[in-house]
Amino acid sequence: MKSKKIMLAIAFLSSFIFLGNSTTVNAKTYSNSQLRKYAIKTMNKHHLLGTIEIVKDGHRQTVNVGYGYYRRKIKNGNKKLLYPVGSLQKSITAAIITQLIYQKKFSQNTKISRWYPKLKHSKYITVGQLMTHTSGINVIGTESSHGINFSEKGAINWTIAKANATARTKRASFNYNNANYVLLAGIIRKVTGKSYAANVKSRIVKPLHLKHTYIYQNIPRSKTDAISYLYRHGKNYQSASYANKYVVLQLPGAGNLFSTASDYYKIQQGLHNGKILTEKQFNYLSHLKSKVNTYSGGYYLKNGGKLKLAYGNFGDTHFTNWMQLTTDNKNGIVMFLNQPYGSKNQIKSVGYSILKHIKSGTFIRR
């Protein structure tokens, strides 16, 4: 009996021992403070700067590394700073479309010729195909500046004109293209009679009480968008680059939202907990009938639908965003980087090393 008590005591104490080499610590015993230290160390080691929301067992913490505005010495995480959401905005646009579908305004099978009669082949394209990038629309140069100060309506009309002038890909085959989500933003405008920006504010920002999420043209003077940088020749903060105004304005619904990793995580919660979408509605969004791979409604779903992933960068800048969360939002990361380093897969590998310390055996590399 005595020896059994000793063995239990040893087992109990061992669960609190933190080994010097953090990579050898069992992920299940990782405390929030240890996870934070590991994330900062890993980011610095790989020259990644930005802000990350780390979620473990439903408990979240924000980790900030480096400066978001180096010349003014404004650190990442400062309440003044906003970051371009990039392609991670697509799930928000898809969520508003899903709300309208559940309000019986149309269905995922509705042909978009209802709203875009002048768009070639629109009588064959469905709303669901826009949401799953299977429409065949293939607009080139959506993330390059064309020097035009677009209004929301102007950007949508420009997208239609470019789509009509560009060779299509095969309909019902996957071809990721920003134009699909710009057209979805246009549908939101036409159905609600309000701008896409107004819909984001009323349907996303207000219900979640978000304080750091704005459509680009509505960013207040008290805020500033972060600057992106590169790590070069052994130095951080090289090749400074803002998000280009003209590029942002031509991407309503697909790249004109600015936020923080913390606010974005709250949005992901809202897409599942009934504040924006119910769990049933999220399942509808993420399992659209027109999908041909794991992409649906702004996400790639993996591991039998247990994980949701999205990756984005912003044209002509160095901003890089990556999200990998369990679909119940209880574990994972949201990375908003303003200084990446290495290839897309290298950046994801760094994120994965953090994910392994959140929940071992739960996440995937990319």
Automatic annotation (TrEMBL):
Pfam short name (any one): Beta-lactamase
Database matches in InterPro entries: AmpC-like, Beta-lactam-related, Beta-lactam/transpept-like
Residues of the signal peptide: 1-27
Beta-lactamase-related domain: residues covered: 39-343
Identification of the protein by name: Penicillin-binding protein
Organism: Lactobacillus helveticus CIRM-BIA 951
Keyword Nucleotide-binding belongs to the record: no
Keywords of the record: Signal
